[in-house]
Write the structure tokens for this entry.
Amino acid sequence: MSCADDTNASQWMPNCFAELVAAEERGLIFRGWAPQMPILNHSAVGGFMTHCGWNSVLEAVSADMMMVTWPRYADQFYNEKLIVEVLKIGVSLGSAEYASKLEVRDHVISGETIAEAIGQVMGDDDVAKARREKAKELGVKAKRVTDKGGSSYDDVGRLIQELMAWRSSVVHA
């Protein structure tokens, strides 16, 4: 089968792109759900462009990752403010329009804007260095609370105990 006849090709992927990646033996194409945590924790990854969904934010913080933010809807704009303005571990692309999957935005974020934001995250100036240091600091804190004896670890343990006690009371009632 030639790549021109590939009916399984994604609508967003350029024609023959999968074949090019396979032939070059360079890169990966994930169809469906990608294993985000292992990717974020890989040493080759220096930044993360995110839609600012809460799970992605937590995973990025846990991976000591700086972020380029591109929210679309719901709580994502609030999460972006947390990342960029409060935690100071991200750079905004300037997305300001709420848009669901079905809506088309009037404002298109340019390639130049994206490249500039990536440059700010990956740069070696004092601001980028401070952002990188803050991301590492937050990552250490995130890991600490999920380790044995950490608050999140202990809270999950208490939740499990409470659910087991509740289940026992319901079964024996």
Q: What stands out?
A: The longest helix spans residues 126-146. The first strand starts at residue 47 and ends at 50. The chain has a mean pLDDT of 89.
